[in-house]
Design goal:
alpha+beta, PhiE125 gp8 family phage protein, 220 residues, 5-stranded antiparallel sheet, 2 domains, Phage_gp6-like_head-tail
């Protein structure tokens, strides 16, 4: 039995994927004129995408359709799961528009509070039995339309994105990741971080640490 397969489709995209605006970046970098605005406007989308890719979370509010196909054994199509919630692809949840479970080949609309409960913080749905107690989800496909994201981007995420912008901005004149330079062997450089052996990401620890609490797990 393989893991569940989820196909996610953005139904209503956010107006902008940026996680911070130019005014906030300038304030946090201490920039007071407009000479760097054009360059910052290029850096902010790149930094926002870097944070989103690292966490597997877009953060902005969007409406999503998740089509979930649970992993299951052969006939009689049983699941080897305990009373586990249904994990949606985005969190936190703003609202759940519809939950349609295919039962015996028939699409059936489930009712919130009667057929399932919503864990908005974790982006999960808990299936209920006829007595209102949690039970395992069935082995048939489930389609969930929902809206998820942060109405206000968490400050740790904003700070991380601004720090990514800062690195790129000040790299115009020098590499801010260089820790030391010397010339004993003609020329040597040491960096504060890197993506060589033993390093699993391209973000400095100070940035990755701010984003780790928002990172969504990925099952290969």
């Amino acid at each position: 039995m393989g893991p569940p397969a989820t196909i996610s489709t953005v139904v209503t995209p956010a107006a902008s994927p940026n996680l911070v605006d130019i005014a906030t970046v300038k304030m946090m970098l201490g920039l007071t004129d407009t000479s760097a605005d054009a360059f910052l406007a290029l850096l902010i989308p790149q930094a926002s995408a870097a944070a989103a890719n690292f966490t597997n979370n877009k953060f902005v509010v969007e409406t999503i359709l998740d089509q979930i196909f649970p992993g299951r054994d052969g006939r009689p199509w049983t699941l080897r799961t305990a009373i586990a919630p249904l994990q949606l692809s985005r969190w936190p949840l703003v609202s759940v528009g519809s939950v349609i479970e295919t039962i015996a080949g028939t699409p059936t609309t489930l009712i919130s509070g009667t057929d399932y409960l919503v864990d908005a913080v974790n982006g999960q749905l808990v299936r209920l039995d006829s007595f209102g107690f949690p039970r395992a989800w069935g082995s048939d496909p489930v389609a969930v339309t929902f809206t998820a994201g942060f109405a206000a981007i968490p400050f740790e995420v904003v700070a991380a994105v601004v720090e990514i912008v800062k690195i790129a901005y000040y790299a115009q004149g020098r590499d801010p990741m260089v820790r030391s330079q010397n010339a004993p062997g003609v020329f040597e450089q040491a960096f504060w971080f890197g993506n060589g052996p033993g390093v699993d990401n391209e973000l400095p620890p100070s940035i990755a640490g701010k984003l780790l609490n928002y990172r969504m797990p990925v099952v290969a």
